[in-house]
Amino acid sequence: MEIVNYTDPIMKKITVTSVFDATPEAVWGKLLDLEMLMKICKPRARNRIVTVWNHLITLRRTDDNKTLYTDEVELYAGIFTHPAAFWSKTFYRHRQIKWQQIL
Asked: Is residue 3 assigned to a domain?
């Protein structure tokens, strides 16, 4: 699927970041072992309402050998962009808390 970029001022980017008490390799390996990413993450997606959904996951090592995990989503849904952004931020915050419990 092609990456669509809009210059519309209503385009939103949300970012949710957590610190995981493990190395990036351990976090990534565990997520792949659980096959979570394959089931629920679609880096480039869209539907009838949300016409742009660009999702980027970043894992960075901290100085104390933990993982800074970030979900970043750029989305556009016309007049529904603000509610979609609110839902996305809430969803990714909840998911990161759940993943911390699992990992």
From this structure: no
Q: How many CA atoms lie within 13 A of 96 on its CB side?
A: 21
Contact 86/94 with Cβ under 8 angstroms?
Answer: no
Is residue 72 a contact partner of residue 56, using CB atoms and an 8 Å limit?
yes
Number of domains in the chain: 1
What's the mean pLDDT when you consider all of the chain?
Answer: 81
Nearest by Cα to 59 from 7, 19, 13:
19
Segment 53-82 shows an average pLDDT of 90
37, part of any domain? yes
Residue for token pair 């970012």: 15
Among the residue ranges 13-22, 24-33, 59-68, 74-83, the one predicted with the least confidence is: 24-33
How far apart (Å, rounded) are the C-alpha atoms in residues 72 and 69? Answer: 10
Residue percentage of the chain with pLDDT more than 70: 78
CATH assignment at residue 19: 3.30.310
Structural domain of residue 65, as residue ranges? Answer: 12-102
